[in-house]
Amino acid sequence: METIVGKQSIQFQEAPHIVSAASVVGKKESEGPLGKLFDQIEEDPMVGQASWEEAESALQKKAALLAMEKAGSGVPPVRYLFSGDLLGQLIATSFGVMDLKLPLFGLYGACSTIGEALMLGAMTVQGGYSEAVLALTSSHFGSAEKQFRYPLEYGGQRPLSATWTVTGSGAFVLARSGGKARITGATPGRVIDYGLKDSMNMGACMAPAACDTICTHLEDFGRRPSDYDHIVTGDLGSVGQTILLELAGKRGYDLTGKHLDCGMLIFDPEAQDTHAGGSGCACSAVTLAAYLLPKLEKGEWKRILFVPTGALLSTVSYNEGQSVPGIAHAVVIEHC
């Protein structure tokens, strides 16, 4: 059974394995530094559908089917699905996974959703409620801009602090055994609000939450940053990274040289005009599937702290003048 550690962490005594992972991305993502590592590239941003939202649903379905296919016949059938996205009422998920005919736990953690899905999936497998589960999430540049900012046709200007929503979907099959990487611990995050209201600077809004979760995790487990090959946040971007390093330093943790950010890994800001980096639920999910996880599976890295980050705003809260709280969920992934 899992063991409660410190204030808010979990240590898995029989760590569930990540037996397969799949990444499906758009054309812009394929042109970035990780482009050759993704499983599937969709050249058509509409993915053959009639709307951005339907396109995102199609991405989820493709990633889910591919992850289950890659898991192979030696893994028990997936019993439950943990998934979410950025759109209202999780419509990318509900329409995307409908044909899979799997019981669904719909999750919303904004861009931290894959961390929440992996954590809850691991708890479900560890607790004996399922032999295999699927953790899944997605985002799409067109659907996110349409919902949270301006339709693409508007041609709005993006400040340098803004990030570029990743078009893609990442999926992971978790089971009791059979993989070369396992989830050994987790630290669920708290909602942290520093009162920032700039929706075009989400890295700054999420950095305090990332700091809180990372430092709490280290305190709960009695570890230092040196106990990890890397501590990897989801989509703070270059602006958020600077703030995170400063905040963590004030709490006695030097993350310099250990910290990586998926939003900074997935795009080349100079060549691709993505400003502060990448964002969206798919940002950390596809980076984990295509780049981080293979490092662990090959034994190049032994242990990482994977910390997807999310900005918890909606069009309603933003238009009412409320601030943008953040949240971050930490998952310990180790080579086995």
Give the end-to-end Cα distance, rounded to a whole number of Å: 19 Å
State the secondary-structure class: alpha/beta
Low-confidence stretches at least 5 residues in length (pLDDT < 50)? Answer: none
Any idea what the CATH architecture of the largest domain is?
3-Layer(aba) Sandwich
CATH fold category name of the largest domain: Peroxisomal Thiolase, Chain A, domain 1
Listing every helix as H and every strand as E from the N terminus to the C terminus, the arrangement reads: EEEHEHEHEHEHEEEHEHEHHEHEEHEE
| Rg calculated over all Cα atoms | 18 Å
Number of strands: 17
SS element count, helices: 11
Strand content: 15-25%
Count of spatially separate domains: 2
Q: Report the sheet with the most strands, covering strand number, pairing sense and barrel closure.
A: 7 strands, mixed
What is the CATH first-level class name of the largest domain?
Alpha Beta
> Can you identify the CATH superfamily of the largest domain?
Stage V sporulation protein AD
Helical fraction equals 25-40%
Order of strands across the main sheet: 1-2-10-17-14-11-12
- Global geometry: globular
Mean pLDDT equals 95
Keywords, please?
single chain; 336 residues; alpha/beta; Peroxisomal Thiolase, Chain A, domain 1; 7-stranded mixed beta sheet; 6-stranded mixed beta sheet; 35% helix; globular
